[in-house]
C-alpha cells in the first residue's frame, strides 16, 4: 500500500541540503526552533523551501471558524513549503515546530531551482515527493470525509506498520517503533485525544494491538 502520511524511504535531507554541495556550503546555516515555534504562517511570503534535519514539524491551516486542521506531521529528511518551487507567492498553510530540538535546512527558491537544474537525482526526488504528497493528501481527505474514526485509526496503524514496522521472528506480530505522540496521531486522523485513547483501548481489549508510548504491536492474527 502507498504511504498516506509519510514519504516512504526517501531522506531528502541526505540528498538535497545545500551544505552537501560545495558551492553553497559556506553561506548555509540551519535554523533552530523550539516546540510551538512557527516556521511560517498562512499568507507569509513563499520564498523558501525547507528540509528537516531533526525534530518534527506540523503542517496545517485554520478554518473560518478558527478550528485547526492538520495536513501532515513531518520528521527528519522530509521537505515542506514546496509550492514555492512552482511560483506560489503566498503560503496557504502554516508550519509549526512540535519538538524542542527542531533543526531546519532552509533553501531559497532560486537556489532550489539551480540545484534542480544541475542535479537530476535532486529533481527526481523532489518531483516524486510532491506527487506522492498530493496523492496521500487526497486519500487522507477521503478518509476524513467518508470513514469513521476507528476505520481511520486502523488505516493509519497499517501505514505506520508500512513505514516503521518489522516482523517479530518469534510470534509473527508486527512491531512498530514510531516518532509520534498520541496527540500527533489524533491530529492526523482528525479526532480528539480522548477519543483516540478509547479507540486504542478497544483495540487492545479485542486483542488486535498492544501499545506503549513509542511502540505498537499488531498481533499476527489481526494483521
UniProtKB/TrEMBL annotation:
Start and end residues of each Cyclic nucleotide-binding domain: 12-91
PROSITE patterns the UniProt entry points to: CNMP_BINDING_3, HTH_CRP_2
UniProt GO cellular component terms: cytosol
Keywords: DNA-binding, Transcription, Transcription regulation
GO molecular function: DNA binding; DNA-binding transcription factor activity
Domain HTH crp-type intervals: 147-222
Cited InterPro entries: cNMP-bd_dom (IPR000595), cNMP-bd_dom_sf (IPR018490), Env_Response_Regulators (IPR050397), HTH_CRP (IPR012318), RmlC-like_jellyroll (IPR014710), WH-like_DNA-bd_sf (IPR036388), WH_DNA-bd_sf (IPR036390)
Cited PANTHER family: CRP FAMILY TRANSCRIPTIONAL REGULATORY PROTEIN (PTHR24567), HTH-TYPE TRANSCRIPTIONAL REGULATOR ARCR (PTHR24567:SF74)
Designated name of the protein: Crp/Fnr family transcriptional regulator
Lineage: Bacteria, Pseudomonadati, Bacteroidota, Flavobacteriia, Flavobacteriales
